């Protein structure tokens, strides 16, 4: 089932887009948990990490490569950042369209609460 992220992909609702190509979109999180909080998503609708298939391997790899590119462009690559993908209820997933959170700009605690 489509989510709000499909509406962002289709430009039906606005987002602060920081990167876009044919397969990937990245935009700022509406409720940032760090000075830099960006979501990197595939345009393909994949609800959860559990739904990733072998054929998606390159696409999922591109999420990492896009995160790396954004980190460099926004100049927090050397200082550091965290990549997170939440899955289902215990993981804290609230939007069922896989997305990689990029969190940066402050010291992040570990382990997560
Ligand atoms: P998760 O809880 O891992 O599923 O992450 C979903 C994220 O999407 C949350 O951090 C939300 O703040 C973010 N989010 C929800 N709606 C929007 C929106 N319209 N634009 C940008 N970010 C959103």
From TrEMBL:
<dbReference type="Pfam" id="PF01230">
    <property type="entry name" value="HIT"/>
</dbReference>
<dbReference type="InterPro" id="IPR036265">
    <property type="entry name" value="HIT-like_sf"/>
</dbReference>
<dbReference type="InterPro" id="IPR011146">
    <property type="entry name" value="HIT-like"/>
</dbReference>
<dbReference type="InterPro" id="IPR001310">
    <property type="entry name" value="Histidine_triad_HIT"/>
</dbReference>
<protein>
    <submittedName>
        <fullName>Histidine triad nucleotide-binding protein</fullName>
    </submittedName>
</protein>
<dbReference type="InterPro" id="IPR019808">
    <property type="entry name" value="Histidine_triad_CS"/>
</dbReference>
<feature type="domain" description="HIT">
    <location>
        <begin position="4"/>
        <end position="113"/>
    </location>
</feature>
<feature type="short sequence motif" description="Histidine triad motif">
    <location>
        <begin position="97"/>
        <end position="101"/>
    </location>
</feature>
